[in-house]
Amino acid sequence: MNADSQWQLAGNAAELYESVLVPTVFKAWAADLVALAELRQGERVLDVACGTGVVARLAAEDVGATGEVTGLDLNPSMLLVARSRPAPPGTPVTWVEGSALAMPLPNASFDVVLCQQGLQFFPDQRAGLREMKRVLVPGGRVLLSVWEGPTPYTVAMSAAVERHAGPEAATTLRGSRNCPDPESVRRLMEDAGFRDAQIRARTLMTRLPRIADFVLRHLAATPVAGAVAALSENARAALAGEVSMALRAYEDGDGIAFREVTNVLAAVR
């Protein structure tokens, strides 16, 4: 989710992110990450690069009324959507606008730091990890996830965007899956002062609805929304059709299904 200007959203893209991508792509992964964190009642949790807040809202349920949850993101439109969502059961979430590289938060103020798909966007990953360590109490824990790599869907989508909207738009899209090697992240965590850093590969089955319709809604929820919207109606239809054709091997009912892997890195301060 977005941590710096590489993935800033404009217009109604944040609303579409919440309504289109969270339920289909991010919610199941958020639930898996929060379950791995084994949150306890009363814990104080920070969700870094929180986007529209799916991880923070799930964490709020686990820590209960005696806990505290804060969501931090650089993108004001994401936070606007996060604040508009119904309050979760458990504790209210505090939404904070700020950079993951210089968090406007006090030292040693959280028991747990979570970060779902944000690290790959940090312009300085070491600085981001040092900030996570700074805001954790001694013995606090961090869990962050990064994609294993592209999926058949993201490969097909990026290729079609490159053909129709140009290489710059495709490069932006591919950046979200251009994730660091998990072993290099583990070493960065150790260099930042974390201990017991471990990697856990997680696999889930992703199911997406009818691709010819879904892909254009997906792209409207990304930083390349403007470039795709500027195409002619025929070009947009051709783009969507190409993605759908490229994924025929993954058809599952009206949509597609494929296995997806993310790496969760966990460590202790």
Descriptors for this entry?
disordered N terminus; 269 residues; alpha/beta; 8-stranded mixed beta sheet; Rossmann fold
Structure explained in plain terms:
With 269 residues, the chain is α/β, with parallel strands linked by helices. The protein has one domain (5-268): Vaccinia Virus protein VP39 (Rossmann fold). The protein is 43% helix and 24% strand. It contains 10 helices and 8 strands. Strands 1, 2, 3, 4, 5, 6, 7 and 8 form an 8-stranded mixed β-sheet that branches. α2 links the parallel β1 (44-48) and β2. α8 crosses α10 (233-246). Residues 1-5 have low confidence and may be disordered.
CATH topology: Rossmann fold
The structural class is alpha/beta
CATH level 4 superfamily: Vaccinia Virus protein VP39
Given the C-alpha coordinates, what overall shape results? globular
What is the number of domains?
1
CATH architecture: 3-Layer(aba) Sandwich
What is the compact description of this entry?
Helices cover 43% and strands 24% of the residues.
Topology of this protein?
Elements: H1 13-37, E1 44-48, H2 54-63, E2 68-73, H3 76-84, E3 93-97, E4 110-116, H4 125-135, E5 136-147, H5 152-165, H6 167-175, H7 182-191, E6 195-208, H8 211-219, H9 225-229, H10 233-246, E7 251-252, E8 255-268
